[in-house]
Write a structure and sequence with these properties.
Layout (H helix, E strand, L loop, with lengths): L15 E5 L5 E2 L2 E2 L3 H4 L2 H9 L3 E5 L22 H11 L3 E2 L17 H9 L5 E3 L15 H10 L4 E4 L20 E3 L1 H14 L5 E7 L6 H10 L2 E5 H12 L8 H13 L12 E5 L10 E5 H6 L8 E5 L7 H9 L2 E5 L10 H12 L4 E4 L2 H10 L1 H7 L5 E3 L4 H9 L6 H7 L1
Parallel strand pairs: 1-4, 1-7, 4-6, 5-6, 7-8, 9-10, 9-14, 14-15, 15-16
Antiparallel strand pairs: 2-3, 11-12, 11-13
Helix pairs in contact: 7-9, 7-15, 8-9, 13-14
The structure holds 3-phosphoglyceric acid and magnesium ion.
Length: 427
């Protein structure tokens, strides 16, 4: 944790402590899975223990229309469900703040916050939870409005803590505000960065597994990972695009842009391509809407190469579970010293089996460090292998990052300090 000020070192007694979390787990006004809130509870309790007065905040969803800069303030993206959850879970009383937007460009007037802070200081409530940070005009602003908002917000607090590991984008509440207050990393941020070091200095051999729905967003992290890892496994559209580019396959749904991105990655990483472990069996389906008898089959890569290239072969919707019984695959997975997994292997609404088989195989390697990142990856693990997932929570070999984009951004830049909000804490 070189040079990053930690909240454990901060004097919080009687201080108003502004804390940014990544509690971005509300969908249509309801909490989908409280994991990201639960991960921040030690931070909240520590602030209470040290006599601090917390103002909490998070973004929820993407309420800003980037084309018009208007912000859609709706109950769907409200923090209310988070406040209810915290009040219930920790038996707390949260103060509401009545902040309203004067127009469709978001909230600018923070003055009602003064009254809420008075209530907090008078002990009439335990904490304040600000409205969704993305409802404020300055939050995602690219101009002076970001600093105007950050400075105004900072004026209500004495200390700033960033515990929002998953919120890697530099916005007013994650980045600019650190200029105006003594700033520290929270306990979760500290834990995540410590675990990131296990990806940067891995127990070798490192097996990295990355999947995704767009290749172009993953070129950077993949090019970095393929250097550090001994084995790289691809899944999802990324694997489709790689197969299409390498073997000139005509795979339904894989466009020119994905193939071009795959080709660019292969050109950039040409000295390391032998590290890619090709999963030999895939699910070829004629439909992406339904899974029915006769509409899909399991094919070996060698069969795909023989297929008629003049017409689309169908969608590749999963790495078939058979891949994870293949001798070469089993050998690499069982000899791994660590795993980094940011990957749902298939189109899991229809074909979750590839991911299930892979997570199970990884679990069988008891000695390896197992680092999982990405909301969908963790959600699928939890949904489809609830037993293994529950045991993994108390297994020190496992770590589940609360952010996916944050981990990949760090990997691409070579360190956690590649994330702008982390840099802001150091300055
Ligand atoms: C997430 O859920 O991925 C994080 O909260 C970041 O959200 P964002 O991609 O909208 O910035
Ligand atoms: Mg995301």
């Amino acid at each position: 944790m070189k040079n990053i000020p930690l909240m454990l070192e901060a004097d919080l007694n009687a201080k108003v402590v502004l804390i940014r979390f990544d509690h971005n787990i509300v969908k249509k006004g309801k909490i989908k899975d409280p994991m990201r809130i639960d991960a921040t509870i030690p931070t909240i309790l520590h602030v209470f223990k040290k006599g601090g007065l917390p103002i909490l905040m998070t973004h929820v969803g993407r309420p800003k229309d980037k084309a018009t800069n208007t912000i859609n303030i709706s109950d769907n993206d409200s923090v209310q469900a988070i406040v209810n959850y915290l009040n219930q879970k920790l038996q707390l009383k949260g103060c509401a703040v009545d902040l309203k937007a004067a127009d469709e460009y978001g909230i600018t007037d923070l003055s009602p916050l003064a009254k809420a802070v008075d209530c907090l200081k008078a002990g009439k409530c335990d904490y304040i939870y600000l409205p969704n940070t993305r409802w404020f005009k300055g939050e995602e602003a690219k101009d002076e409005n970001a600093d105007i908002f950050a400075k105004d917000l900072a004026s209500y607090a004495d200390v700033y803590i960033n515990d929002a590991f998953g919120s890697w984008q530099p916005h007013a509440s994650t980045f600019n505000v650190a200029k105006y207050l003594p700033a520290y990393a929270g306990l979760l941020m500290e834990k995540e960065i410590t675990n990131l070091d296990k990806v940067f200095s891995p127990q070798q051999p490192l097996v990295a597994v990355v999947a995704g729905s767009k290749f172009d967003t993953k070129i950077g992290p993949l090019s970095a990972l393929i250097k550090d890892a001994e084995t790289l496994v691809l899944g999802g559209v990324i694997y489709n695009a790689y197969l299409a580019a390498k073997y000139n396959l005509n795979i339904t749904g894989i466009g020119e842009d994905d193939i071009a991105a795959a080709q660019k990655f292969m050109d950039d990483s040409k000295d390391h391509l032998s590290k890619i472990l090709e999963l030999p069996y895939v699910v070829v389906s004629q439909s992406i809407k339904e899974r029915k008898e006769g509409s899909w089959e399991i094919k070996h890569i060698s069969e795909l190469k023989e297929m008629d290239k003049s017409k689309p072969m169908g969608f590749i919707l999963d790495a078939a579970p058979e891949s994870f019984c293949d001798e070469a695959v089993v050998k690499r997975f069982s000899e791994a010293g660590s795993f980094f997994v940011n990957a749902v292997m298939g189109y899991s609404a229809l074909f979750p089996e590839g991911s299930m088989a892979m997570y199970s195989l990884i679990d069988q390697n008891k000695n390896a460090a197992k680092l999982f990142g990405g909301g969908d990856t963790i959600q699928d693990f939890k949904t489809y292998l609830p037993g293994i997932f529950a045991l993994a929570q108390n297994d020190e070999k496992y770590y589940f990052f609360t952010g996916g984009g944050a981990v990949l951004t760090s990997i691409e830049s070579g360190s956690a300090q590649g994330m702008k909000p982390v840099q802001a804490l150091i300055k």
